[in-house]
Amino acid sequence: MKRAFQSVLSFLLVMSMAVCLCACSDGIGNKEPALKIAILTSPESQTPEEYRRAAEIAQEYKYAEIFTCADSRVASSGVSDVYTKAVALAEDKSVGAIIFARANRYTKAAAEAAKAKNPKLLVVCTAPEEDVEKLGTVADMVLTVDTQRDAAMMVEHAKEQGAQVFIFYSPGRHQSTLSVREAREAAEAKCAELGMEYKFVNCYDTLQSLGLNGAKQFIREDISRQMKNYDGKKLAVFSTEQTVQPELVELALEKGFILAGTGFPSPYEGYASALNINLGKNWDSKGKLLREIKSSLKDRGAQKGQFVVWNELTGVSMLNSAFEYARAVLCGDTPNMAKIVEANFSNNIKLSDKLVKNCWFVYAEDYYEL
User: Fold this and answer.
1) What CATH number is given to the structural domain containing 142?
2) What value, to the nearest 5°, has the Cα angle with vertex 158 and ends 275 and 291?
3) Which residues of 234-256 are buried (b: 16+ CB within 10 A; e: fewer)?
4) Which of 7, 236, 248, 262 could form a disulfide with 258 if both were Cys (CB 3.0 to 4.6 A apart)?
5) What is the domain range of residue 211?
6) Is 345 exposed, middle or buried (0-12, 13-18, 19+ CB in 10 A)?
């Protein structure tokens, strides 16, 4: 009888373990948490990569949902949409994590309010517009670009292509953030090292009275001024302002300066819009997108090395990493960010050793020349 009881007990223990394991498996080798993961994104027109990938994740996993917030580039009065949605999600006890995909300027306040409502809520952010130092005191994990390394690489590449002047555009709102401050300092230092002239321009902010059109108008007029001021010198240009990236692509084709990089290092940032490239259902085919961009630029007279970009759909890779991180934490695991980055980014993208509380940084070892 005792042996029979032990056999039954062993069977029950095995079955109990199996049930526990099944509770954290979705049948395709991935973990399935008991609580939901909410993904907050901007509209497709603002961040196409994050919006489309978030929609796919919501379809693929029953415990994931996408919520679209208003365009943060447009000035608005009252409580921000991302704040309202984050607080509402925090009040939903079925939600265990919120991912702010390409976290906009309202994220820190939204995350603080959400955490106040639900202290156990996991907050994960990708590519924040706000200061990572401040956001890292609220969020559980922030994944972004090592702008210090990236800016230095931009200058080096521009120098190799014959640039004599490096022009750095950024609105005042961006300049108070660690990422932009470090990028400015790194670009200026590298210019001094390589014997290039560095020029900083405080550009128009989309939150000012003329909005998006004002930012585009400013960059067109100022580029023309700089071309006249530096007549005969080869210019390289970079801007942290997302709105003007398509304008910079078009202006570089028109005026011949080097587009040193884009505010967010992905081929979807400026290139796809400026060149009217739409891959439809194949939107996430990195190889096809880069080929289409390269072909279009060549057809319009682009010079070798004039345009560069990361060989990565960076928004997609960051969101995939954030989702994997959130899922692991909600399942009781301790995520290894080095392994997560290695699994979700191409071999050219590495995890930086930069240290900021709760923040992880990635960088590219080299640019992809378009």
Assistant:
1) 3.40.50.11400
2) 30
3) bbbbbbbbbbbbbbbbebbbeee
4) 236
5) 147-312
6) buried
- Looking at the structure, tell me whether residues 194 and 84 fall in a common domain: no
Which of 273, 295, 312 delimits the end of a domain? Answer: 312
Write phi, then psi, for 79 (nearest 5 degrees). -75, 135
Q: 255 and 227 in contact (C-beta within 8 Å)? A: yes
Question: What amino acid occupies position 99?
Answer: I
Residues 94 and 198 in one domain: no
Per residue in 27-41, pLDDT (tens digit) is: 323 679 999 999 999
Please report, to the nearest 10 degrees, the dihedral formed by the alpha carbons of residues 248, 254, 255, 261 taken in order: 30
In a domain, 6, yes or no: no
pTM recorded for the entire structure: 0.90
User: Would residue 202 be called left, alpha or beta, if left means φ above 0 and alpha means ψ between -120 and 50 degrees?
Assistant: beta
- Residue 175 CA: distances (Å) to CA of 155, 185, 279, 316, 351: 19, 11, 35, 26, 24
228-268 confidence digits (pLDDT tens): 999 999 999 999 998 999 999 999 999 999 999 999 999 99
Question: Is there a domain that residue 254 lies in?
Answer: yes
43 and 88 housed in the same domain: yes
